[in-house]
Design a protein that fits this description.
Largest sheet: 4 strands, antiparallel
InterPro entries: Ribosomal_uL6-like (IPR000702), Ribosomal_uL6-like_a/b-dom_sf (IPR036789), Ribosomal_uL6_a/b-dom (IPR020040), Ribosomal_uL6_bac-type (IPR019906)
Organism: Nannochloropsis limnetica
Mean pLDDT: 85
GO molecular function: rRNA binding; structural constituent of ribosome
Low-confidence stretches: none
CATH class of the largest domain: Alpha Beta
CATH topology of the largest domain: Outer Surface Protein A, domain 3
CATH superfamily of the largest domain: Ribosomal protein L6
CATH architecture of the largest domain: Alpha-Beta Complex
Number of strands: 13
Strand order of the largest sheet: 11-12-7-13
Distance between the termini: 66 Å
Keywords: Mitochondrion, Ribonucleoprotein, Ribosomal protein
Number of domains: 2
Family: Belongs to the universal ribosomal protein uL6 family.
Helix content: 10-25%
Number of helices: 2
Length: 183
């Protein structure tokens, strides 16, 4: 049987932790926003140190792996509400462009990717989008998993080609090109 008490979140002037014990929820608030997580582990709060210790007793490897994943998610949420996360997508190809269309209820991304039609994608409310250039798209959010998931959805609209340098790339991503047909 293992008892882990080495992980903690320190409450600061920018990071506020709210424990809702009856609903079994933990709310993490910061300058960028707030995230609420269900409680799957036991917590101890030290008022003197202003630390929230995450404790868990387990005797199974699967429970240990789940607990470690839960610790990572809480750490990522604390970083997200303090600093925020960003992801940049570069659109490479002749005639490929993206623009933002703002409507009353939500925003839409309009992609021109060489198809016979434009591709419209609704932007979810947990992601903020900016388009500094017609071929550069900046995504910002406080939840890392949701941000990367939405970036993956956009990237699947036009995956990077292995034969030509065309498609939607992450910032810094390199794709090794295959050799074309030899004659």
């Amino acid at each position: 049987m293992f008892i882990s008490k080495n992980q903690y979140l320190r409450q600061s002037k920018d990071l506020k932790l709210n424990l809702l014990c009856q609903q079994k929820l933990l709310s993490v608030e910061g300058p960028q926003g707030s995230i609420t997580y269900p409680l799957y582990a036991e917590f101890e709060y030290s008022k003197i140190e202003r630390k929230l210790y995450i404790t868990q007793t387990f005797n199974d490897e699967r429970k240990k792996a789940f607990f470690q994943m839960y610790q990572i998610l809480l750490t990522q949420s604390a970083l997200g509400v303090l600093l925020g996360y960003r992801r940049q997508l570069n659109i490479v190809g002749i005639g490929y462009q993206v623009s933002i269309e703002e409507k009353e209820t939500s925003n839409f991304l309009i992609f021109r990717l060489g198809f016979s039609h434009q591709v419209n994608v609704e932007v979810p409310n947990y992601v903020s989008v900016s388009c500094p250039k017609p071929r550069v798209l900046l995504l910002k959010g406080i939840n890392l998993q949701k941000l990367h998931n939405f970036a993956g959805v956009l990237r699947r609209l036009k995956l990077p080609s292995a034969y030509k340098e065309k498609g939607i790339y992450y910032l810094g991503e390199t794709v090794s090109l295959k050799q074309g047909k030899k004659t």
